[in-house]
Amino acid sequence: MAHEETVYEALDHASGGEGHWAFGTGFDEPLAGVDTTVPDGVDPVDLGTYCLMLGDDALVLAQRLTQWVTAAPELEEEVAIANVALDLLGQARLLLARAGSVGVLGRSRSRATASIPDEDALAYFREPDEFRSTALVAAPNGDFARTMARLLVAATIRLAVFARLRESRDSVLAAIAAKGVNELTYHRDHAGRWLLRLGDGTAESHRRAQDGVDTVWPLLADVFTPTDVETRLTAAGVAVDPATVRAEVQAVLGEVLGRATLRLPDWPADTAPRGRAGEHGPELGDLLADLQGLARQHPAATW
């Protein structure tokens, strides 16, 4: 009887039979074929830090969304949420790989993680204070209405940034943004449709949707405040100053909430971007314990 190749054997054979780290997100080089040269006049440390900001936001929000798998209100919605999380995970992988390619890891590599791809080392072996994600993506999910309100806000902001990043002088960021725009458009529209459904539904769904919006809005306090890194890279034609997308984001969110018969909360006063500086509440540590636990127990594991 002919031997039937298992899925694990197929994965191993496809990559030369050398074995791979069990927690990786793929076997191919994520930046293969893209010019990874750092643009003239750009500090590689700034570029790497900016990629961490964008990549960490995607990674943390993807992990939050996966917490809904097997718990969403509809089977079809579980598939949709999982697909959104996978899109964000793909963006995170590319951005963390870019951060690694410009030397962000530096001396933080340990002997146990020396052979692990940059994007995986950055995802699984950094401490919470090394993450550059915002409170918006790190906050607990709450109920389904709050999750959709947060996804709508996060996707709207990220889409506005990525649409502009397509013109970045950094070829990698431009390529990631060009691919991500279509994904983020779907994320925003999917969450928007749910808020319309919930806000203009029953009295209970309306109440929950409004509570979700009211809970998410204070998390916007620091998302439009640029860091020094963003300011320098924006001047160099590489990054996007988050303050420049404020008007667009406010207009989109105001229109969606109005159609959903939801009250638009007051916009919070700008504060320093604490998450970008590595200052986080305990919720991020709890999330990372789930995300990183298995990899840390078996740092050199292979297929």
UniProtKB/TrEMBL annotation:
| A Gene Ontology term for the protein's cellular component | cytosol
Transmembrane feature ranges: none
An example Gene Ontology biological process: phenylacetate catabolic process
Q: Which Pfam families match?
A: PaaA_PaaC
The record's section on Gene3D superfamilies has: 1.20.1260.10
Q: Which InterPro entries match?
A: Aromatic_CoA_ox/epox, Ferritin-like, Ferritin-like_SF, PaaA_PaaC, PaaC
Q: What is this protein called?
A: Phenylacetate-CoA oxygenase subunit PaaC
- Organism expressing this protein natively: Geodermatophilus sabuli
UniProt gene name: paaC
